[in-house]
């Protein structure tokens, strides 16, 4: 199969330094790619050549629209999507002031659809799958577009092996480091000065879950992160804060519960209690959706194997 491109100036970014992107596509689909001028010859099985062609065309189109240089992660994401039978990110992207974000797996694509179509979305799965990052991106996009008046980001104040009371400083200084991942995601979506101005004006609020009690959150995009560390009572309290024209996203990983022994997870409880409720959507991520460094995927797999084989009481 011979593939020709119109704009030669895009090809160095498409092919990558020393053709590293082409090599990754070859490895991903088991094909051979040979470039000459503005043409790429693809050889392999019919399905594999079609898949490689689709990835090259989609990446070329992104660059031709003015996209920056491709990262290895973006190339791997395009390959992963094609291997999962998803034809591309069109129609599922999120545009924020700093980034245009496309799904990196078929599950992420389903998640973006859910964020657009449902008032309450649960995103469950391991670290690195984009659960919180994509939710913050959608929240920022809706805030900038005027579809909501504010963003509320929250986490339960349950520490992984630490005690907030022993940290120095006042309440804000104690809590801010714990909420840092949410601040990091915000700064990825918006210029820093705009984040600070929105925080100062109250358009964006980052607060521990305890601060939600007694409130009704209307015209807001509300995200509860690390929800596996809520109690059933806390989770019910949070979910019943939903007001008019509001969206809620609840993210968590049921394999990373830091609650005291014997305390049930509010996230696990809510998933059972709300099964089949109209307007609620649950998206389940797996290690196949991990979008961080590929070593993270191997770490997740190693821990899953260890958990499956260890006996009670063993480390």
The poorly predicted ranges are 159-164
Tell me roughly what share of residues is in helical segments.
Answer: 40-55%
Any idea what the shape is? globular
Read across the widest sheet, the strand sequence of neighbours is 8-7-9-10-6-11
Number of helices: 12
The CA-CA distance between the termini, in Å, is: 53 Å
Main sheet record: 6 strands, parallel
Radius of gyration: 22 Å
Average pLDDT number: 85
Secondary-structure-derived class: alpha/beta
The succession of helices and strands, N to C, reads EHHEEHHEEHEHEHHHEEHEHEH
Strand content: 15-25%
Number of strands: 11
Structure description:
- This protein is α/β, with parallel strands linked by helices and 315 residues long.
- The chain is 41% helix and 16% strand.
- It is built from 12 helices and 11 strands.
- A 6-stranded parallel sheet has the order 8-7-9-10-6-11. Strands 1-3-2 form a 3-stranded antiparallel sheet, covered by helices on one side.
- Strand 9 (220-224), helix 10 and strand 10 (247-252) form a beta-alpha-beta unit.
- 35% of the residues are buried.
Which keywords apply here?
315 residues, alpha/beta, 41% helix, six-stranded parallel beta sheet, three-stranded antiparallel beta sheet
Furnish the topology, listing elements before pairings.
Layout (H helix, E strand, L loop, with lengths): L1 E3 L6 H5 L4 H10 L2 E5 L2 E5 L2 H19 L7 H12 L10 E2 L4 E2 L4 H12 L2 E5 L6 H14 L5 E6 L15 H5 L4 H10 L2 H10 L2 E5 L11 E5 L7 H8 L7 E6 L13 H8 L6 E5 L9 H16 L6
Parallel strand pairs: 6-10, 6-11, 7-8, 7-9, 9-10
Antiparallel strand pairs: 1-3, 2-3, 4-5
């Amino acid at each position: 199969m011979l593939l020709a491109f119109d704009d030669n100036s895009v090809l160095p970014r498409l092919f990558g330094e020393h053709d590293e992107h082409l090599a990754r596509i070859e490895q991903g689909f088991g094909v051979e790619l040979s470039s000459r001028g503005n043409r790429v010859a693809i050889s392999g099985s019919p399905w594999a050549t079609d898949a490689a062609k689709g990835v090259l065309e989609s990446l070329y189109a992104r660059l031709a629209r003015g996209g920056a240089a491709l990262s290895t992660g973006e190339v791997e994401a395009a390959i992963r999507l094609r291997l999962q039978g998803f034809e591309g990110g069109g129609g599922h992207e999120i545009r924020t002031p700093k980034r245009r974000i496309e799904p990196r797996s078929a599950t992420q694509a389903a998640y973006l659809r859910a964020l657009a179509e449902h008032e309450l979305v649960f995103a469950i799965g391991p670290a690195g799958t984009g659960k919180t990052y994509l939710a913050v991106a959608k929240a920022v996009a809706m805030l900038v577009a005027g579809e909501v008046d504010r963003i509320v980001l929250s986490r339960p104040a349950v520490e992984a092996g630490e005690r907030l009371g022993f940290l120095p400083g006042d309440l804000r200084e104690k809590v801010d480091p714990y909420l840092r991942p949410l601040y990091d995601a915000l700064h990825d979506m918006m210029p820093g000065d705009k984040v600070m101005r929105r925080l100062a004006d109250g358009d964006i609020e980052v607060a521990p879950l305890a601060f939600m009690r007694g409130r009704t959150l209307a015209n807001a995009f509300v995200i509860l992160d690390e929800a596996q560390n809520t109690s059933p009572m806390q989770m019910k309290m949070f979910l019943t804060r939903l007001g008019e024209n509001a969206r809620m996203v609840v993210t968590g990983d049921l394999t990373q519960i830091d609650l005291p022994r014997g305390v049930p997870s509010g996230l696990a409880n809510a998933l059972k209690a709300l099964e089949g409720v109209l307007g609620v959507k649950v998206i389940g991520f797996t290690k196949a959706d991990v979008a961080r460094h590929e070593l993270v995927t191997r770490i997740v797999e190693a821990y899953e194997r260890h958990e499956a084989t260890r006996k009670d009481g063993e480390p």
